[in-house]
Amino acid sequence: MKKLISILLVALLLIPLFAGCAGSEDDDLQRIKKNGKLVIGITEYAPMNYYDEGGKLIGFDTEYAEAVCAKLGVKPEFVVINWDTKEVELKAKNIDCIWNGLTVTEERKENMAFSSPYIVNEQVVLVRSADLEKYSKKESLSGVAVVAEAGSAGESAIEADLPEAEYTAVASQANALLEVKAGTSEAAVIDATMAFAMTGPGTDYSDIVVSKDIDLMDEEYAIGFRLGSALVKKVDEITQGLLKDGTLKAIAEKYDLADRLISG
Amino acid sequence: MNFLTVTTKLLEGFWLSCIIFFFTLFGAMPLGLLVSFGSMSKFRPLKIISKGFVWVIRGTPLMLQLMIVYYGPGLMFGLTAFPKMTAVLIAFIINYTAYFSEIYRSGIEGVPRGQYEAGQVLGMTKTQIFFKIILLQVVKRIVPPMSNEIITLVKDTSLARVIALMEIIMVAFTYTTKGVIWPLFYTGVFYLVFCGGLTLLFGFIERKLDYFRV
């Protein structure tokens, strides 16, 4: 009896761990229309989604999402999520999509349905400016301590282009830069968009620079929806329209992303 | 980054940490007493359930419990999730109930048998004995372990960020993504000041209870 009850209690607590596999086939498009809102999972990340001085959420993805939602006839609701558990958030229907500079990877395709890519994303290597000459080529990083966010595009780039490096995964892209700054690692691989927003004058990372001659593979940003979601097609159609009438181009120019926009 | 704006923003985050702290305390303190009664009960099923509860909750990380409460309803039953703060409070109260119940149990079982017997000799009922003789002695005994646990709770509130509740450390991390590091370490000051206040308070309570020995 004693055993039975304790086993039962443990089982009860463990169910959620395994229940993740059960997917449902609700029509997302109808669901959001009924709710009147599209719940969008974001993290604070310039230039995609971030707050201006007045505390208003701005950024390329913010305005892009607002434009799409206006056409869909629903309200966008931006929810800050933990990037580590974004797939769980999506599956648990706490959010309807991830729209936050999400890089398309083969691994992620197993867990979510991607829209057409809209921004070319580049991974860059960052080093302390004093070390720039030392680490100017891919070969110079072999055996050197390099960090990137666990499960990020930077990690895939290291696996593909810097297999000789001494790679360690860290919790976030911001932590990766912190490692370089603190001297616990020599180089970090992160998104170019983030690298330019985080380094440079006025930041604590002004002594950290992009090693420009190390060219890593390009990747693309897209919106992540639940697998089988009817929203993918609908949002792609709307995006086509926004590209044609120049709306998206104007937003991209505002955030200095015009040359990265995928237009067609 | 202006020092004052950062401080204001961090204070907003710390306010949420404080809400978690106080509500957890107010929820878990009485619930812990109930569970400790269960653990000491002579009615076996109740005892087994209470002990099992304490084992499961103390045996799994609070971080995991937070995720189960927040993502569980959606993943298992397709229900709408609790609002973030509600989910955090549920997980924290359940977790701290388990820890507090064991502290209460140690306090109650530590009271010598003779104290009960003395009450019986005076013709008091069980309830009277508990509230008039035992409880105050229990309170005195559990102040040091409780203060320990309560100070741990202050810092555990930072775990709420695993489900992206904007507590102070998460606010600080939003600055690191903008290339500013110092707010992250500055958060330590807030915790230190708060725990400092608590330490003084517990010292005061201990002194107040010093007029009798157990």
Short description, anyone?
The complex is a heterodimer of chains A (264) and B (214). In chain A, 37% of the residues lie in helices and 23% in strands. Chain A is an alpha/beta fold and 264 residues long.
Topology, pairings included?
The complex is a heterodimer of chains A (264) and B (214).
Chain A: H1 2-19, H2 28-35, E1 37-42, E2 50-51, E3 57-58, H3 60-72, E4 75-80, H4 86-91, E5 97-103, H5 106-109, E6 113-114, E7 119-128, E8 145-149, H6 153-161, E9 166-170, H7 173-182, E10 187-191, H8 192-198, E11 208-210, E12 218-225, H9 231-244, H10 247-254
Parallel strand pairs in A: 1-4, 1-5, 8-9, 8-10
Antiparallel strand pairs in A: 2-3, 5-12, 6-12, 7-10, 7-11, 7-12
Chain B: H1 3-40, H2 44-59, H3 62-77, H4 84-109, H5 113-121, H6 126-156, H7 168-176, H8 182-208
Helix pairs in contact in B: 1-2, 1-4, 1-7, 2-4, 3-4, 4-6, 5-6, 6-8, 7-8
Description:
- Helices cover 37% and strands 23% of the residues of chain A.
- In chain A, strands 1, 4, 5, 6, 7, 8, 9, 10, 11 and 12 form a 10-stranded mixed beta sheet that branches. In chain A, strands 2-3 form a two-stranded antiparallel sheet.
- Chain A starts with a helix and ends in a 10-residue tail after the last helix.
- Chain B has a single domain, classed as Orthogonal Bundle (MetI-like fold).
- Chain B is 80% helix and 0% strand.
- In chain B, helix 5 runs antiparallel to helix 6.
- The longest helix of chain B is centred in the first third of the chain and has 38 residues.
- Chain B is flat.
- Chain B starts with a helix and ends in a 6-residue tail after the last helix.
- The relative contact order of chain B is 0.14.
- The interface between A and B is large, with 47 and 34 residues.
